[in-house]
Structures are given as structure tokens and as C-alpha cells.
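Fold this sequence, please.
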Amino acid sequence: MGRIFLLPDEVASQVAAGEVVERPASVVKELIENSIDADASRIEVAIARGGASLIRVVDNGAGMDRDDALLSLERHATSKIRTGQDLAQIRTLGFRGEALPSIASVSRFRIATRLSDSVEGTEIVVNGGKIDSVKASGEAPGTLVEAKSLFFNLPARRKFLRSENTEASHVQHQLFLQAIGHPNVGFVFVRDQSVIFQAPPSAHLADRIRDLRGQQALEQLLEIDPFMSGTVSIRGFIGKAGISRSTRADQTVFVNGRPIENLTVQHGLREGYHTALMKGQYALTFLFIEMEPADVDVNVHPAKREVRFRDPDHIRELIANAVRRTLQADRVRWTQAFQGPLPSQSSPPAAIAVKVFPPESRPLFPLAEQYALRKDWSEFSSPSPSSEISIGSGSEQSAAPRPISSDGELTGPVEASVPKAQSESFRILGVLGRLYILMENEEGLVLVDQHAAHERILFERLRAQLEQAGVPCQRLLIPIVLPVPPKDFDWLLLHVAALQKMGFLIEPFGEGTLKIDGIPQFFRADDPAAAVRQLVDELRSITQGTSRLRLGEDVIAKTVCRHAIKANDELRAVEIDQLIHDLLACDLPYCCPHGRPTMIQIGYHELEKKFGRKV
């Protein structure tokens, strides 16, 4: 007798449901996507006991007639696609026709739907996958779906549900995702008969973010200037430099309106921020990618959370460039904040002003050598009411660049030439705690961390010098022969040219084996296998415009950290002036190489709130 049997329809339905319905949040996701596909402009979601007892989703979408309502409960019945070729042109959120039958097979299910031009609707009651009744209904136009007693016929699966609060939080997160992804749709969330939030339809994504996350969260974001490259467009919001989270939970990415998770996108974000984020931190992101459906495969995951791009390198490059451009635009905004007019005042500050230095007498000084311990700050301070720092004009001669030893150490003075703008009008007020430089600009008070600021200055200069000189390669007396996994082997061979620019001499040495004849002088290869694995991870995230020194930037950052001015180092007025100008001339002036902020702006509005002048 054979050992292979056909599963009963009831068991097969429950097996299929396990791929789609993981928890109450999965049910909510599938039902909301159906409502959005039906052109609903308002969706109300209600749950009880975390969704295990009740899930109700009501929309004002197109609705269905009786025949379509009955057919929608059959497996693989859908209005979204017709042929296999349609899988390459999916423009809807749902397309498999599995959601409703899967949900109905593991719950006490009811659907009531009505077309807008119909006198009556249809109500269907399903109990564990079996239709109990079909009758006329007087519901409003649209569709109502109820799923009660989730997993009542699968007690083993029901035991895997978490606490009510945990399941409810997953449902709320799913609503947040859909509400962010579709700001033109209004959402209402009711939990145990209490309204948790209401998000009215909005024409702008910023308004929806403000409604769901608050004004403070919106102020931490930068809007991406929408752009298109071929058939791909990118828009949305990203966190400002230095604004980060410890997990990826706040990295929200949509592809053609579908929330997704994808390593290519994550690598693009990390590459775009680079030193603007601390290690182990993740950017706050609301990213929208629109592209031709044929260029992305959404049919690779049962829950449709993951997608696969036809040209992942191109997508990664576009995302990294979008992030860089947005941060660059914010850099321009920062610079403009130090060029605007200062607020008028009846009398200039007296006790905290610093001495005037005419442009022709402003001394030059080597940054790493003379931003150091100095004589009394009071020597350069003046109680005169008219004292104010002067920002000079004209060019200045630079000191000779400091040579770099083979181990990356600074061995001489660093050049200190930065052209000054003619009309910059910020005011340096003084130094707090021998660490924080206090400044006033048109927006309010600015605090500058002198150590972090100097780190950024030295980092960019040292990296630029090394870039011009090329990456020094150290030939190995005995080459390293290293077996690597097939996937990493193929990847490294594809990037041999990039590796040569970074100072590596690598060639294949048999199947699955590499021979390494030379490595960059800054590369640590005490454990060759671990070093190559790290190398592959880095290469997966870089783009064509990546610096050749990417793998050595950690060494550069550690080097400049040792040479930068420290806390309690006293600076003269001219040194502070030079430090600020050099910082504003950097590519990323608002964070150090480790991702910590160099500047913090405290606006007048915030100060007025602190002092009770405004609510």
C-alpha cells in the first residue's frame, strides 16, 4: 500500500492559511490591502483582546456583488491578475487570492459587501472554512469583514499568540505602516471599544507623519527632493545627520506602495549616510520607491514582505545618492544659518564678547598643533561693550600639508587655509566648560563640541590627502591563500577592480580559493578569514562613487581622534574663529567621523518655551 495520500481540503486550507495568517496583525494587513485595492478612502479597524477575539475592518471601497463575494472565498480567486504574464505587471497590493479563504478557514468569519449602485448587499457567514449562510444585507456601500475567535480550530497555533498588548501593538504597527504608505486614505483604529487614533486623509506625507508621530518627530526629518532616474523615482523623508535609532524599526520603506524589507535598500541607506551615523545605529526613514512592476519581483515571500530587484546595484546607487543630496541640502541650510543677519539688539553683549582682530592681522596657526592648551582666555577677552569678533575677508596662505607615515600617523603640521566669506555674521559668545563653543546665529543659540568639530576637519583633510596620494599597498612576503565560500568567491571576483583601487592584490587560486599578494597598509589581517568576511560585507554596501579609503576610514578616524583638540583645551579667540570657519567648509559639518553631532541648534522658539514666554 502506498504511503502518499491527498490531504483533505480542510487540512490543505489550514496549511495554506499558515503561510498567510501568522497572527492578528497579518489578518489586518491583508484586509487593509484589499480595501486599498478597492479604492477605499476611509478604513476603520477594530480589534478586541489583541485581535484574537475580534478583528473588524470596514471600508467605503467599491464593494462586490453576490457572485463575486462568494467567489472571493475560493482559493486563488482574484480580480488582480489573469495570466502568468500579469505577474510581471502587478500594480496592486494583493494578487494571489489567498487572503480571504485563508482567514475564513481559521476563524468565525463574516463578510458583508455592497456595490454603491445596488439596493441591497450580500452577507456571507463562514465557520472554520465552511459556508454557513448567504443572505441579503443592508450594509452601507463598501465592505465589512469580521474575523472572530482566530485559530479556534487550531489550538496549537493559538498557543503561539503573545499577550493581548503585544498582539495589539503589532496590529497598530501594521496600521501605522499602511497609513504612512497611503496618506490619501483616512484610518481609524479602535481597540476594545476605545479609539486609539484617527488619521484623516491628507494630501501631503508630512501631515500624515505629524498626525502619527508628532511634530517633534517631523522636525527631525529632511524631505528628499523627489527625482527620477529612468523609470525609478525616489521620494520621502530621512532623518537628519546624527538622528538615529538603535534598531531598524523606524526604517519604513515602500516599493510601489507596498511596505517591504530589503538588504539592498538597507545598504543604500547606510552608504548614503556613511559617517553621518554612529556605528550600530540606523537612520529614521520614510522612503518611497516607485518603479516599473517588471523591474521588481514581489512574489518571493508568502507574506509579501520581501521583494527582489532586477538591478539591485542601480537601486542601491540611487538611494545612496538621494541620501547624500538631501544631507548636502541640509548642509547648505546650516551654512545659510551662519550667514543670515543677527537679531537687532539695543546694546551688544559686554561680558561675553571677545576681542576684535582686524582681517590683516589675523594670525594663521596649524590646527592640530596650536588648537591646544593656551594661556589664559581672559588675555583675549575684553569687558568693552563694543567688542565683537570680526570675520575677515580675502584669502590666506596655507601652511604646508602634514606628511603621513605608513601607519597613518600625522607627522607634521596640517594646512590651515580656508577662504572666508565676506559677509558672515554669526557671533561667537564664548566657551562653556572648556569644551562647548557658544555661538549666536539668526535662529538662536548654537553649541559646538570643539573636539568633535576638529575631528571632522582633520578627518576630511587627511582622507583627501590620502585619496590624492593613492592607497598605499603593502606587498606580502608570503601570499595568503584563503578558501572562501562560493558566494563570497564570486562576489570578490566581480569587484577585483574596486579592490585594486583600495590597495588589495587578489587573484583566484583554484576553485573557491583566493591568493592575496598585497593588502593596504592600514588593513589588519591577523585573522585573514575574518578580515575577508568583513571585506565582503563592506563591498556589498558600497557604490561606484565610494571612496577608495572606505576600508581604512576607521584607522583615519582613530588617528585624528588622538590629534584633535580635547576637552579642557583652552583656545584663543582667533583659533575658535578659524575652527568654526573650517568646520563650515567641511562636507559634513554637523557630525564627527564617528557620527556624533558637532553642533546643536537651540532656536529662539525653544528658549522662549523654556522661559514660559510662549506655550
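The chain has four domains: 9-202, 220-337, 359-467+560-610, 471-547. Confidence is low (pLDDT under 50) at residues 346-423.
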